[in-house]
Amino acid sequence: MKKHILFYFLIVIKWGSYGQTIKENVLFKIGEELHFKITYGIFNTSFASLKVNDTLINNISNYKVIAHGETTGLAKLFFNVNDNYFSVFSKNIKPIIFGRSVKEGDYYAEESIYFNENKALFVNNLDDTTEEINVSENIQDIISAFYLFRGLPQEELLKKFSNYKIPMIYNDEGEFIFELQYVGQETINTYLGHKKCFVFKPILPGIGRIFRSPNAITIWVTNDEKRIPVRVKAKIVVGTIYADLVNILK
Fold it and tell me: Which of 3, 156, 220, 243 could form a disulfide with 231, with the two C-beta atoms 3.0–4.6 Å apart?
């Protein structure tokens, strides 16, 4: 169960809108770090982070975002998770390379995806197998989508109860459509003080046995131009899991 929750946490803080054109970013900078604490009941179960770096490809500057998540304390004894993801994308938020190196209990994965227009080359680094996958022109990986979202025009994003859609890819299972619904505004108390927030809900059509309903996850992002996620709440079959922003480094 824990590995599925961490996967959805990574997805729901990385989102966008199908068909939008984003100008070169001015909302986040090289060196930005977002740090989250994940709790379940009285237990602090995990930590996660997003760090923005710079990388050169053919002498062209691109973003490289590194995402890390791991279980801690008692949770680590029951289910050890150490997940590392990265995304390299252009200054206008077009994915170039996505990779993940994960250890979740007895499960291991070492995978990469290389993007080239309407094609994506999936590479399994554990057995050296590859697969070419057809993808949409506006494809995003689960990390680049979050940074795309932060630059979307507000008048297009904040249409109440309208679903925003983005084609996304995560592994060799291919492209899927991620949907996000704006539901209103709320002021909440966070580790960083009271924050005015936009509130969104991702649509989870294949909820399986983990979540209570297709609207089981709620995301709060700051009500400003940077749209930083400050809280994610996931109602699962037994209890509720929270991911809270605890620190921002710039």
Answer: 220
Domain count, the chain: 1
Vertex 53 angle, CA 48 and 58, to 5°: 140
Domain around 34 = 2-249
Question: Distance (Å, rounded) from C-alpha 69 to C-alpha 38?
Answer: 10
**45, 78 in Cβ contact below 8 A?**
no
Residue 170's pLDDT is 87
The answer to whether 95 and 115 are in contact (CB under 8 A) is yes
Q: Indicate the residue type of 98.
A: F
Instruction: Of 147, 152, 170, 175, give the one whose Cα is nearest residue 162.
Output: 152
Query: Which two structure tokens, joined as six digits, stand for 68?
Result: 């890390």
Instruction: Dump pLDDT digits (tens) for 101-122.
Output: 999 888 899 999 999 989 999 9
Query: How many CB atoms sit inside 10 A of residue 66's CB?
Result: 16
Q: Would the CA dihedral through 152, 50, 141, 202 be positive or negative? A: negative
